[in-house]
Every structure is written in structure tokens, then in C-alpha cells.
Amino acid sequence: MIPYASAAEAEAALGRAMTWAEAAWYKYSVAMPDAWLHCHTTVILFVIYTITPLPLLILEQFAPSVILPYKLQPGVQVPLADSLRCYIEAACVFPIAVGFQLLSYPAAAKVLRTRMGLPLPSVRETVAQLVVYSLLEDYLSYWIHRLLHTQWGYEKIHRVHHEFTAPTGFAMSYSHWAENLLLSIPALAGPVIVPCHITTQWLWFSIRLIEGINIHSGYHFPFISPSKLIPFYGGAAYHDYHHYAGGRSQSNFAPLFTYCDYIYRTDKEVSFFPCPHSTRNNVLLPGVRSYI
């Protein structure tokens, strides 16, 4: 809760006029308890998780001729019922997460040291923090993912996520509860080590969720692929091969960037690999060699 009785008092404390964004933030959060602002994270992620996979899902059902040319495994069609099952099982976790956040907020506040008030962070500060969070999360997730591909980790935990050899957006969060818990550690590591404003935290988790849905989408759109703009970005094709290989996979563990796979020699340079029932020709991704 912002500790100012009025906007004028807030500006006096800042020593300057509030920006339009700060004024909007003041109006929204001035009377809201910090615990509720903290819980916004889960609500935002629920909305993103619900909406983001829908366009591809709708196109698959009603306009397959438009979308299927870009499908990485065109011979595998995930039934609509399975996609909805993924969503329902994952969505059930969000209300539980809100309750947990409310109960754990005093302890979480001490660990995260998240700022809730004014001033809002600058663009430079936000970008710098997001870069640090991304690199750190990628490194830690890489090693957790490798551990989950040991025989015990795969059979007891990770095999649930790999039920989908041709993943869809909703399958991103379809995992064993222990895996969800383990992979929350890398995502939280950055904000714990480098504390940020709550708005940066919302942005960070939103970006990671959208990116996770993207790499599990099962589609590669060359005309809008971030892999053309972002160095070491793996993208959907890179991670789709990991699901295609399933339990046998000992490569392409990185969730976002590929630098860990490159350093530790677990990078599998992939093409648009064909499904066993597909007649599509192999179309090589820019800058990589075929695994075939």
C-alpha cells in the first residue's frame, strides 16, 4: 500500500511530478494491500494461460488448411479433448496458488523484497533486470531439466509432461506437481537475487509464460519467429524436437536460450523434422543443420 494520503503528498516525497504511469499506479494501488498486489501475479498468469493458446487451437479446429502448413509435426493431431484436459488440470492450480500466496505473503515479502510503491522503475532498469532474470533462469532450468531426464527423474516425475510428443500451448503447464515446484525455483531466483518492482515481476512472469506457451505451441512461423532477432533463442522447433524424442532425449534442455546446451554439448541442431505419418519435406531452420 502506498504510504501517501494524496497525489500531492506522493509528488512531494518524489520531489517531482509523477509521470502518467506513476499517476495511474498511484490511483490503482493506493488503497490496495501489498498482499493483494502480490497475488495479482497469479491472476495475470491465469488470464495469459487461458487466452494465449486459443488462437492456434481455434484455427486448428475451424481453419486447418491455414495453420497446418506451419505445424512442426503435421501428422500428429492432438484431440481437442486432450488440450482441454491440459487446461482444466493446470487451471485448477491457480486458485490454490492465490491462497498460498496470501498465506505465505509475510515470508515471501522478506525473501523477495519486492517494491510496491513509487517511483516506478525506469525502462533501462526493467530491461536490465529482465535480461539478468532470463540468463539466470535459463541456467538453473537447464540443470533441473537434465536431472529430470535421469532414469528416476523421468519415470517418477517428468514423464507426465512428455505424454505429449507433439505439444500444444496448454501442455506447457501440464506437469507433475513436483516438476512445477522445482521449475518455479529458477523463475523466482532472479527476483530474489535482484529485487524489483512488482510491475517488473508481473512483466517477467508474463514474458516467461508466453514464451513457454510459444515453444510448446507445435508451430513455427518463420515470418514472425523471434529466433531471427534474438541470439541463442531456441524457439518452438528447438523444443518441439525435445518432445518428439521423448524419454530418449538427452538434448535441447534449455527453455529459452540455447547457450547452456551449446556449452555443455547437448544442443541438437534440428530441422523441421517430419512426423512418421507426414509427407512434408525437411525444411532446415536458419543457421542449423539437420539431425537426420
Automatic annotation (TrEMBL):
Locations listed in the record: Endoplasmic reticulum membrane
Keywords: Endoplasmic reticulum, Lyase, Membrane, NADP, Transmembrane, Transmembrane helix
Annotated ranges, domain Fatty acid hydroxylase: 131-266
Coarse class of the protein's main subcellular location: endoplasmic reticulum
GO molecular function: aldehyde oxygenase (deformylating) activity
Keyword Calcium annotated: no
Record field: catalytic activity: a long-chain fatty aldehyde + 2 NADPH + O2 + H(+) = a long-chain alkane + formate + 2 NADP(+) + H2O
Regions crossing the membrane: 35-59
Membrane topology: Multi-pass membrane protein
PANTHER family: STEROL DESATURASE
Protein's UniProt name: aldehyde oxygenase (deformylating)
